[in-house]
Design a protein that fits this description.
The protein is α+β, with helices and mostly antiparallel strands. 48% of the residues lie in helices and 15% in strands. Strands 1-2 form a two-stranded antiparallel ribbon. The chain has a two-stranded antiparallel ribbon with strand order 3-4. It is found in: Mitochondrion membrane.
């Protein structure tokens, strides 16, 4: 949907200047990259990272009878910190230059008195 209609592009004061499919492509690329690094199998990532395989291997060793499993504890700690660290690779409000936007939107923004090298912002998502 974002690739068809675009995502909102804002100026430094938070005013919406339009919707950009170019910004949407950048945002989706950043989110996919951070999810692949995170290796969350629920995100249907195409990369087989070590973390999901390790999580599957450790989860098969967890016994409900035994209360303490260092491997499961380590796996849980890793998953707890991996998500925020991978989401923080890119800022939530990412930036894009006007010159990097698609031509129709760039034209309307420049007509509005902005310079092509001015930086605008968009919410990348999680």
């Amino acid at each position: 949907m974002e690739l068809d209609s675009g995502i909102p592009v804002l100026d430094s004061e938070g005013r919406r200047l339009g919707d950009s499919t170019a910004a949407a492509k950048r945002a989706i690329g950043q989110v996919v990259f951070s999810r692949i690094l995170h290796g969350n199998p629920r995100d249907a990532d195409p990369a087989n990272t070590d973390e999901p395989a390790g999580a599957v291997r450790l989860s098969s060793q967890i016994s409900l009878v035994r209360r303490s499993n260092p491997g499961a504890t380590l796996c849980g700690a890793f998953l707890t910190f991996a998500t925020p660290m991978c989401c923080a690779l890119f800022p939530q409000m990412a930036s894009v230059r006007v010159s990097a936007l698609e031509a129709p939107l760039r034209g309307s923004i420049v007509k509005g008195g902005r310079k092509p090298d001015e930086v605008l912002y968009y919410n990348k998502g999680l």
